[in-house]
Design the sequence.
């Protein structure tokens, strides 16, 4: 006798609906957009404890500064690419009903003769109001973004932000700040680099510089040099020459109590290569510490690969391969001046600094460890 078919056999299982995540309150949201020489990046976030939770994000290589070194102007094609990306940002801001935001542009717009016309075109076509910030504010925001990575043992701190069109360096003396308060002292720099009136023990900015050479502009200046190794060496020494006006440049620095924090696509790519990652993983890269020797080994590996080998290397990627050697030249020059056992890799930058600064000014971040 055939077995009796159980009742309900073959029926579709009843769907169990999980509740949709609650949409964040628009009044609690902040946005930060960074339009650089090479990339357009945006974060939408809400405060959470002493940090923030990212609700939405956007990142695209727009190459706004393509040809700027030669013509002094933003090209039509570069502006069209950028406006297309900014339309997507505008849609995300509208969808999330964001009210508090800062949308900033940096070196390419600072240098281009037609940048004001471009800003007006962006406003006309997307409704977004871009603000061209000065190098000092760009440097300050990069420093603030790295506050969570500052060790309580650090007495002398160098923060380096390698951008597409410029590189910002800020040297900070933390020796008079209590150890446990050092990361928070960095955060308080959102008030400005001059902190004489601050009632708290303050982080003292010894010196800062904005070098008008980034991964895109440095590459463009030496594009006519055909030999790969020669081009790399020339870029590195040329960048070092441009550090001559930076006050701590000639000072010998003991490795004990000294920390460099590097924030850029170059630094994160070098870190990913050091770890041998086949697919980029921010959780493994952000906050990683590397020695000068480890970084030098990765850069020598890039040179041995040559242009074709770097193009095929999955750790570098298509977007980064054209810029990795100019970025590595900058990084090598810095480590030649200040070798360290503690270069902290920061997968963060201007956007995070903009968010921290807005939230800190509004008093919505909790005191305590990051």
Sequence:
């Amino acid at each position: 006798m055939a077995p009796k078919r159980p009742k309900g056999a073959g029926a579709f299982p009843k769907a169990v609906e999980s509740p949709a995540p609650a949409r964040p309150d628009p009044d609690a949201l902040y946005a930060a957009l960074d339009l650089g020489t090479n990339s357009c990046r945006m974060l939408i976030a809400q405060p959470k404890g002493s940090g923030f939770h990212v609700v939405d994000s956007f990142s695209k290589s727009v190459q706004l500064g393509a040809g700027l070194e030669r013509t002094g102007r933003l090209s039509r094609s570069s502006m069209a690419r950028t406006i297309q990306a900014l339309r997507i940002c505008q849609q995300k801001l509208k969808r999330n009903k964001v009210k508090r935001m800062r949308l900033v542009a940096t070196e390419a717009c600072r240098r281009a003769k037609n940048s004001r016309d471009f800003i007006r075109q962006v406003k006309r076509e997307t409704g977004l109001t871009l603000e061209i910030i000065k190098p000092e504010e760009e440097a300050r925001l990069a420093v603030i973004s790295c506050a969570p990575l500052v060790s309580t043992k650090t007495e002398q701190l160098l923060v380096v932000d390698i951008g597409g069109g410029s590189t910002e360096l800020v040297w900070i003396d933390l020796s008079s700040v209590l150890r446990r308060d050092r990361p928070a002292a960095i955060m308080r720099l959102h008030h400005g680099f001059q902190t004489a009136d601050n009632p708290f023990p303050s982080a003292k900015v010894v010196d800062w510089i904005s070098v008008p050479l980034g991964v895109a502009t440095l590459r463009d200046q030496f594009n006519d040099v055909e030999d790969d190794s020669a081009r790399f060496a020339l870029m590195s020494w040329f960048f070092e020459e441009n550090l001559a006006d930076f006050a701590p440049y000639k000072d010998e620095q003991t490795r004990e109590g000294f920390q460099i924090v590097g924030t850029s696509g170059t630094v994160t790519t070098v870190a990913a290569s050091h770890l041998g990652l086949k697919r980029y993983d921010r959780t493994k890269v952000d906050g990683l510490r590397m020695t000068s020797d480890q970084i030098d080994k990765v850069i020598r590996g890039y040179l041995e690969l040559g242009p074709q080998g770097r193009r095929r290397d999955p750790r570098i990627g298509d977007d980064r391969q054209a810029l990795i050697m100019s970025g590595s030249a900058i990084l090598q020059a810095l480590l030649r001046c200040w070798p360290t056992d503690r270069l902290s890799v920061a997968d963060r930058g201007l956007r995070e600094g903009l968010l921290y600064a807005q939230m800190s000014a509004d008093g919505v971040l909790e005191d305590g460890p990051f």
